[in-house]
Amino acid sequence: MTESLRAINEEHDLDQVLALIARQACELLDLQQCAVYVLDPPSGTFRINGSHGLSPGYIERTNVEPMRLDEATARTGPPTARAALTGRPVFVEDVFNEPGLDRWRANMAREGLRAVVAAPMRTTDKSPIGTLTGYTRSERAFDTAALDQLALLSDHAAAAIVAARRRDRERAAIGALSEANEELRAQQATVARLRDLQQELTRLLLTDVGLAGIAAFLARRLDAEITIDDEDGTALAASPADATVQRDVFEGGAGGRARLTEVLDAGRATEIGQADTPVCLVPIPGSTSPRARMWVRRTTSGGLRPAAPFDDDERRAMEGCALLIALERSRLERRAEAEARLTKDLLADLLSPAAMVHADSVMARAAALGHDPRGSHELAVFVQVTDPSPGARPDPGRLTAALLDAARDIRPRPVVGAVGDAVVALLHTAADPLRDRRRGRALLPSLVERARQVTGGRARCVVGAVQVELADVGQELTVALHAARLVTPASPEIVRLADFGVHGLLLESGTTERLVRFAERTLGPVAELDRTRQSDLVATLRAWFAADMSNRETAGRLFVHPNTVGYRLKRAAGAAGLDLGRPADLMTLQLALVVDEIRGGVPRPS
């Protein structure tokens, strides 16, 4: 008894404790085999959980087709089930002479068992939990003393089972508490990380880092590439600056576009990339059409192992940044709208002779807006060539906002504002002409690129005078606007009026319609000859004027004989009805060529 109690108290494995009690029963009661049957209340079946002397085959067969509690009554059926039902020890002297045991006789015969005795195991509230069942190989009647000893041992087995189940419950409770504690720690860590993220995002918002700064912050946090754009593909920011998230696989076909729309409508950061290159698409909340979105791509680590997928905390960080991007974008849009209104008024005054009577007041307002009215400027006019479809209209407001955003870090501020359907940009130049040229050619291409992105390639830029003062911009702007109204989808992306010399000034002489009719009337017959005879008369005229009207130099540029150049010039002049020996006719022809080139005709020779 001491041995079994010690095993129970020392929390040995339950099956080992039950096997120990089964062995003790065999030794104390002179049994050949003994088993501890544990009752499963939900199913009402018994399973052997510990034994002594029984073969593995017997145990397996018994557990495969387990005994059921409802197979016995108080007087009939297997002793194990009867003992559990009655709560008293039960024995059978010879199982082969006892009725109602047919199902078990074959298994007992293979094991060589004959007599069976079973004592119930119960909890403190008398609920049955199983039996301690012993076997002998010969017939045997068990006296009261043997039954009492078996009952005492069954109480020990019951105590072991109850203690084991209590320990299991306690361990499960401890495990649940530990798991809850770990979850709490993880939640606290997440809250701390989100708090740090919120503080960092607030700092970014207060320090006015812009969309590029937010993208750079998130790229550092996630060790990833970030691209922020609109649904129409207009790039808003990227980190690193040359980052490009490959979206073709997602945007190709109706299925890919439907998936993107689904993610944007859901409003949550969603991983949509392949397993080896996780890409997360993050909708920007509150954005109007076209909606803004952020792409986050994590590449492989040194090419040695696949990139890790994004976890929940990282997606929360993305969504936090998306909210900040929405706030920053809204702030930039409001600022751009306000600046565009103010600049539009400033440009209207610069073009108004009545307003420029008070030029000092206008220049003071320009200085208050961050411009430098004292310095020289380069003049650029942006226009959008529309589709021929009905209802297609340019959007100068969106183009103005895009150009203002592209030049947001430039000081002094460029003057960017709408004049009708065109957007005018006056880019301040430095005092040093060389530095001026370097800076102007760095800023102007970036504005042209942004205009191309935001208009889907439909923007054209007419570059007017350089070194113009704000107070004198009116006349120069009039010429550039005249030229801008001539552009077509066939026009080059950048048209520089300086390339046309003094003839560019002649664009001021008439309306767009009159200039177009003039060019068509002058060059139309020449172009018709080119079309029907497959000649190059218009190109030869351009090359001739570019070569300072030298037949020899023109021939070198066109790789033809000088006599060929002279022959072509005569044919062109005859078709146009002009005399190339008269200065007035030369001026007429050059102006027609300027208008035709702005509209995208034969390119000017280099």
From TrEMBL:
<keyword id="KW-0175">Coiled coil</keyword>
<comment type="similarity">
    <text>Belongs to the CdaR family.</text>
</comment>
<feature type="coiled-coil region">
    <location>
        <begin position="167"/>
        <end position="197"/>
    </location>
</feature>
<dbReference type="InterPro" id="IPR003018">
    <property type="entry name" value="GAF"/>
</dbReference>
<protein>
    <submittedName>
        <fullName>Helix-turn-helix domain-containing protein</fullName>
    </submittedName>
</protein>
<dbReference type="InterPro" id="IPR025736">
    <property type="entry name" value="PucR_C-HTH_dom"/>
</dbReference>
<dbReference type="Pfam" id="PF13556">
    <property type="entry name" value="HTH_30"/>
</dbReference>
<feature type="domain" description="GAF">
    <location>
        <begin position="13"/>
        <end position="171"/>
    </location>
</feature>
<dbReference type="Pfam" id="PF13185">
    <property type="entry name" value="GAF_2"/>
</dbReference>
<dbReference type="InterPro" id="IPR051448">
    <property type="entry name" value="CdaR-like_regulators"/>
</dbReference>
<dbReference type="Pfam" id="PF17853">
    <property type="entry name" value="GGDEF_2"/>
</dbReference>
<dbReference type="InterPro" id="IPR041522">
    <property type="entry name" value="CdaR_GGDEF"/>
</dbReference>
<dbReference type="InterPro" id="IPR029016">
    <property type="entry name" value="GAF-like_dom_sf"/>
</dbReference>
<dbReference type="InterPro" id="IPR042070">
    <property type="entry name" value="PucR_C-HTH_sf"/>
</dbReference>
